[in-house]
Every structure is written in C-alpha cells, then in structure tokens.
C-alpha cells in the first residue's frame, strides 16, 4: 500500500516478508519500485535507489543464511555476490588452502594405489587389498566430493540443481562412510593376525579380502541410499545438505561412525595391551639374564619362518611370546619395535578420532535437539564448516601414516615421485639386499659401499672375524667366527622384526 515518508510518497512496494503481531504488520525487505513527488511520478534518485537496494540485499542475504527454507530464487541476481561471507583476501586464502588439501588427497591416495599395483612385494600381502580399497574411497572423495564442496564454500550458496545436490550428498555419505568402514575392516584384519596367526593365515586369502571389501561398500551404500528414496526434506534452491530427519540421522551416525569407532577402540586397545605386555616381558627377561647365542639363532629362524607364514607382525608377536615363556633370550631391538607398533596404533586412532569425532557429535546433537525442542538449532556456519572439512582431512592423513610408519610403502612412494615406475621392483630389491646383507648388489640400487666404503655394524664385525680367522688357531678362531655369525644373525633379525612391525599399519 502507498505510504508517506518524508517528501516522497511511495507506491508499488514489493513485500518480501511480513510478520503479524497483534494485528499490526511489520514489514521487512521492501523494494522501492516508484516514487511520487510534487513534480509528478518519477523513478527514485540514484542515491535513494542505491540505499534501498543495499537494504534489500542485506535482508535477502540474512534470510537466506538464517532460514533453510528460503530459496535462492528469492534472492535477486545482483545480491548473489553478497552471499559470500569472505573478504577478497580471505576468499583467496580459503580457496588456496582447500585446493591444496584436495590435491594432496588425490596425490597421496593415488600413490598408495600405484604402489600396490606396481610393487610385487605389496601384492603378495592380502591385507594390502584393504588398503587399496581405503585409498580408492579417499581418492574418490577428492575427485567427486571436494570440488563441489569448495565451490559451495566459496560462493556461499549451492549453484547447481536438485539432481546435482542428490548426487553430491550421496557420494559424500557413501565415500566417507566407506573410508571409515575400511579403517574398521583393517583393524579387524590386524587383530585376527595377532590373536590367531596360524589359523587366520590359512583363511587370509585374496577372495576373503574381496568379500570383506564388498561388505564394506555394501554397508556404505545402505547408509547413503535412504535419502535418495525419500528420507529427506524438499530441495530448496541454493541450499544443499544432509538429510535432517531424526530417524535417518540416528541411523547414519551410529552406523557410519559410532559402531566402527567402538570396534576399533576395542580391537586396537587389545593390540596395545598385548604390545605393552610383550615389552614388559622382554624387559624382565633382559634383567634376568644374558643372551644365548645358538639357541637364539634357532629361535630367530623360527620367528622369521612364522612371520613369513602370517605375513604380518602378528606372528612375530606370537612367536616371541612363546620364546619368552620358555626362557629364551630377548631379540635385539625388540623394545624399539614395540615402541614403533604402539606409536603406529596411536597415530591411526588419534588421527581418525580427531578428524571425525567433532562432526558426528555435532550431527547427532543437532538431530536430538530438533527432536526434543521441535525447532532447529542454529549452529554457527563457520563451526559447521570447520568440523566438516576436518573430517575430509582424514582422507589426506591416511597416506601420510603409511609413508611414516610402513617402510613397504615409504620406499615405493619415493620412487614413484621420482618417476622410477618401470624399474621400481628392481630398485627395491637392490635396496633390500644391500640393507639386509651389507653387500653391493647387481641391481641399480645405490649404496655407499659402491664408492669404496666398507661394511659397517654387525657386517663389519663379521668381515673382521673372517679376515682374522686364517691367522687364528684352533679354538680361538672358531670362537671368533661363532661370535661374528651370531652378531650378524641378530642384526638381520632386528631388521626383520622392525619390518614386520611396520606392517601393523
């Protein structure tokens, strides 16, 4: 209706929203269309129009941010840039940071997949199939989910239609859930390797690993499909998010996070207790007596055979426990290996919990609040975005954990980054041979020993003993040779134990 304010009589006001209070209307978001003055009907001046447009944009932006049912269609095209809540400098910084994160996720997980695909040693371990499945889900997060998430984050609104929203949210839930469930499957695999090394080694076949991977992706699909079947709110242009229905939120958060987290805490907790118990037994054995030379050599061979059969740290732990109970000696470097295993478990659980726990606490809390109070809790947008992107960081951290704690992945990563794809197996064999025996090999691996440097450590002792043996006589020469052989065996066993423990990842 026409109204009078100052010198102008306004007509044709566009009412965007009206609130009634005791029969009176308070108007918000009024758009000035025409004004009358003493000189007749005319369009408003540029200054008046600019002020009115600014007030109108501010109100549209506020409504769009505060109300989930306020459509982007109600926001004029000239107001769209105002939906972005970042300054130009902050927008550039956020865009660069999120792009670097996305690139790191894609590169790191692609290195994991290529390593298993090219390195024969990694292909021989069935557990690495689970790691490939995990890397595949994380890689797809970087390719299918994060580019759209970056656009949504920087623009301040979802610029695509409803079908794109359904596809994006379904991929997000499917792939993030798959990543979490793959971590849970890896923890189950590690636990069985340690507690049932011989029985599980027979059952740990590629076909069984494929069955575990299929279950992971099937369960992930069961969590991501319900919104596509109708368990969601109607699509509002400009806003795209997860389904907020109470039943689905409880079902999704418990199935995708809280159950896997509980399983991982229990299994890795038992592995941690076993490692601590072994470390304490080893320390008591060390204080109780010295090392036995020949019995230790036999025990070392037994441990290496069992480790090869189970293809993991589990069999090594099992055999070491049996030897300690029988009063045999403690292998050299065992405490360091236990420490490394404990650090690995801490890195896996710490990173996973730190990245995903805040987001899922927020999601289930918002669902319960809405169910109890009947109204939606308006959480700060920056808080929601921070927790969401923190969960995506977990896909970036997984390859870093492999490279840090597992040498079987760390060395292939280096060669792949140096573009040594064709000769990667030859180079890895050469390095392994040189490190295990302290001798130059016929491969392409480089070593200080090729430049004239002699053997070091236990190998140096063995070389010295062999060179001195011809000059020694009788029992003295044989004693020197036995001591040097035992030292070399202990050194090799220490490296083997450390490599086996690295497979805890």
From TrEMBL:
<protein>
    <recommendedName>
        <fullName>G-protein coupled receptors family 1 profile domain-containing protein</fullName>
    </recommendedName>
</protein>
<keyword id="KW-0812">Transmembrane</keyword>
<feature type="region of interest" description="Disordered">
    <location>
        <begin position="435"/>
        <end position="505"/>
    </location>
</feature>
<feature type="transmembrane region" description="Helical">
    <location>
        <begin position="344"/>
        <end position="366"/>
    </location>
</feature>
<keyword id="KW-1003">Cell membrane</keyword>
<feature type="transmembrane region" description="Helical">
    <location>
        <begin position="129"/>
        <end position="155"/>
    </location>
</feature>
<keyword id="KW-0807">Transducer</keyword>
<keyword id="KW-1133">Transmembrane helix</keyword>
<dbReference type="GO" id="GO:0043410">
    <property type="term" value="P:positive regulation of MAPK cascade"/>
</dbReference>
<feature type="transmembrane region" description="Helical">
    <location>
        <begin position="209"/>
        <end position="228"/>
    </location>
</feature>
<dbReference type="InterPro" id="IPR000276">
    <property type="entry name" value="GPCR_Rhodpsn"/>
</dbReference>
<dbReference type="GO" id="GO:0005886">
    <property type="term" value="C:plasma membrane"/>
</dbReference>
<comment type="similarity">
    <text>Belongs to the G-protein coupled receptor 1 family.</text>
</comment>
<keyword id="KW-0297">G-protein coupled receptor</keyword>
<dbReference type="GO" id="GO:0004993">
    <property type="term" value="F:G protein-coupled serotonin receptor activity"/>
</dbReference>
<feature type="transmembrane region" description="Helical">
    <location>
        <begin position="248"/>
        <end position="268"/>
    </location>
</feature>
<feature type="transmembrane region" description="Helical">
    <location>
        <begin position="386"/>
        <end position="405"/>
    </location>
</feature>
<keyword id="KW-0675">Receptor</keyword>
<feature type="compositionally biased region" description="Low complexity">
    <location>
        <begin position="452"/>
        <end position="477"/>
    </location>
</feature>
<dbReference type="InterPro" id="IPR017452">
    <property type="entry name" value="GPCR_Rhodpsn_7TM"/>
</dbReference>
<feature type="domain" description="G-protein coupled receptors family 1 profile">
    <location>
        <begin position="108"/>
        <end position="402"/>
    </location>
</feature>
<keyword id="KW-0472">Membrane</keyword>
<feature type="transmembrane region" description="Helical">
    <location>
        <begin position="167"/>
        <end position="188"/>
    </location>
</feature>
<dbReference type="GO" id="GO:0071880">
    <property type="term" value="P:adenylate cyclase-activating adrenergic receptor signaling pathway"/>
</dbReference>
<dbReference type="Pfam" id="PF00001">
    <property type="entry name" value="7tm_1"/>
</dbReference>
<feature type="transmembrane region" description="Helical">
    <location>
        <begin position="92"/>
        <end position="117"/>
    </location>
</feature>
<keyword id="KW-1015">Disulfide bond</keyword>
């Amino acid at each position: 209706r026409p109204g009078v304010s100052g010198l102008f009589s306004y007509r044709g006001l566009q009412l965007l929203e009206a609130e009634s209070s005791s029969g009176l209307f308070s108007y918000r978001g009024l758009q000035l269309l025409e004004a009358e003055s003493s000189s007749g009907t005319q369009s408003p001046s540029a200054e008046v129009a600019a002020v009115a447009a600014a007030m109108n944009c501010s109100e549209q932006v506020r409504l769009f941010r505060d109300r989930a049912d306020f459509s982007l269609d109600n926001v004029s095209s000239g107001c769209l840039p105002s939906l972005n809540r970042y300054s130009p400098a902050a927008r550039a910084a956020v865009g660069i940071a999120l792009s670097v994160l996305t690139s790191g996720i894609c590169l790191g997980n692609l290195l994991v997949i290529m390593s298993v695909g090219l390195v024969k040693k990694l292909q021989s371990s069935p557990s690495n199939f689970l790691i490939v499945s995990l890397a595949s889900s994380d890689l797809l997060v970087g390719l299918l989910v994060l580019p759209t998430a970056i656009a949504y984050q920087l623009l301040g609104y979802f610029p695509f239609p409803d079908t794109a929203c359904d596809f994006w949210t379904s991929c997000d839930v499917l792939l993030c859930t798959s990543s979490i469930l793959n971590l849970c499957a890896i923890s189950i695999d590690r636990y069985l390797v340690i507690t049932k090394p011989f029985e599980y080694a027979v059952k740990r076949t590629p076909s069984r690993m494929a069955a575990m991977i299929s279950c992971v992706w099937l369960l992930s699909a069961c969590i991501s499909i319900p919104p596509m079947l109708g368990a969601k709110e109607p699509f509002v242009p400009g806003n795209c998010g997860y389904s907020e229905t109470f039943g689905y939120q409880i079902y999704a958060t418990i199935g995708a996070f809280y159950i896997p987290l509980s399983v991982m805490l229990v299994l890795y907790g038992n592995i941690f207790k076993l490692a601590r118990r072994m470390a304490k037994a080893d320390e008591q054995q060390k204080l109780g007596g010295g090392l036995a030379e020949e019995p230790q050599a036999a025990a070392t061979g037994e441990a290496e055979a069992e480790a090869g059969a189970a293809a993991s740290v589990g069999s090594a732990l099992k055999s070491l426990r049996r030897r300690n109970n029988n009063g045999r000696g403690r292998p050299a470097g065992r405490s360091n290996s236990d420490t490394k295993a404990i650090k690995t478990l801490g890195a896996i659980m710490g990173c996973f919990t730190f990245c995903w726990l805040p987001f899922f606490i927020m999601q289930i809390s918002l669902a319960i609040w809405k169910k109890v109070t009947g109204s939606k809790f308006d959480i700060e947008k920056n808080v929601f975005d921070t927790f969401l992107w923190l969960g995506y960081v977990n896909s970036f951290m997984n390859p870093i954990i492999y490279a840090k704690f597992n040498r079987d992945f760390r060395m292939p990563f280096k060669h792949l980054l140096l573009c040594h794809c064709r000769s990667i197996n030859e180079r890895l064999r050469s390095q392994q041979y040189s490190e295990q025996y302290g001798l130059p090999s016929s491969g392409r691996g480089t070593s200080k020993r090729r430049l004239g440097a002699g053997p070091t450590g236990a190998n140096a002792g063995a070389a010295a003993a062999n060179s001195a043996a011809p000059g020694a006589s009788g029992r003295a020469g044989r004693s020197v040779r036995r001591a040097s052989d035992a030292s070399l065996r202990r050194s090799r066993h220490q490296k083997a134990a450390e490599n086996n423990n690295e497979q805890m990842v």
